[in-house]
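Late entry, evening session. Most of the bench is empty. Finally got around to the prediction I had been postponing all week. Sequence below, unchanged from the version circulated by S.P.
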Amino acid sequence: MKKVQLTETVLRDANQSLMATRLPYADYEGILADMDKAGYYSVECWGGATFDSCLRYLGEDPWERLRGLRKNLPNTRLQMLLRGQNLLGYKHYHDDVVEKFIELSIKNGIDVIRIFDALNDFRNIATALEATKKYATEKTVASGCISYTQSPVHTVDKYIEMCKELKTMGFDTICLKDMAGTMSPYEAEHLIKGIKDAIGDMTLILHTHCTTGMAYMTITKAIESGIDVIDTATSCFSGGTSQPATETMFYALKQYGIETGLDEDVINKVNDYFKPIKQKYVDSGQLNPKSLATDAQALVYKVPGGMLSNMIANLTDMHAMDKFDAALAEIPAVRADLGYPPLVTPLSQMVGNQAVTNVLIGERYKNISKEVKNYIKGEYGIAPAPISQELLDKVLEGAEPVDCRVEDAKRTGDDFTAAKDALGDLCRCEEDVMSYICYPDQTMKFLKDRKAQEENEAVYTIEEM
């Protein structure tokens, strides 16, 4: 019997795409024991924007969240999304930082590390792969990820060559990450058949979004073409900028006689649990109806779900939602100027923010963000296509762009020393140091708040005695 397995995304990408990763651990802790019995291929629950969101918005320690997930999902593969040399931040880190982060991720409970580079510059994922293999347990899976997009330079043949390279590098599985949901059924058929012919029986995974309305057709064609694993979200957190529904795909595959390994009663129980949680965020306005809608124009804009929900949140905060359509239309123009980078973190934020800036100021590239300047200088890797000469002239001012994977000083130890010195007695463990390296301002505030809260609790305890 043919088998297709499902990865459940509600704990990470589904809520990241629909409500900008504002789902706290306390909201879903009560269903984890049941999720552990569902039979998922994996539960995507960490990485991506969760680390940032925990520290910046939710007042949570992301490492403590991971340990809680590991404790309550002992029989399920825990999966994270890692941005290669960017880790979970927005810049390149030294190799020793990348290695230590992966060591701590595996130590605290991660099984599947899905590693990608926003530009598909595989030099930027090599260190992460090496570290994953170095610290692997018998359960660890290193999954090489391709950021899928369409442009004049992104072709089926190009993607097939990328997959061959990922296999040669030593990844255990390969994932096609269609972050904007723009892959069509036609493209899925030709792409997946070509890749499966090239990589043999190596596990191939498809991650897509419902943003454009294409996902269910695309996933169905992908299954017919030989895909092994698909990413889905429990149905009340599915659709819109999120993934296709877990229960719906289970039902359809069951009729085709395709084994999924899922327990139907359990996945329905999971969805029942999340229904009132979703409604709470709809009522509060944190889950914007725009994120739940289908927008076929995304086939033009190539905007991924998380980027869209963050763009809506940011424009709402600035009281500038009247500029939404203009900013959306500016995105493909900025992307073309920058050499058609796939719109995935951190490039999605960089392109999106630049498009918004261009529209709000009313003049293109009057202000260019530091991150976009660094990209133009070559500090993020090789652009898929030539960058606009106008932008090169404006940013480089006659200098030559760099061609580097990361800084020459790859293992210095300076990052750890500086972080420990900055944190002082706020630091309790290596995880605190790593959080500070990734997000210094947010971590410093979080650790100060943690210390103050514990001191207050100690005062209350003494008074009660």
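Two things to note before I forget:
The first strand starts at residue 5 and ends at 8.
The beta strands are 5-8, 42-47, 78-82, 112-115, 141-147, 173-177, 203-207, 229-232.
Will write this up properly tomorrow.
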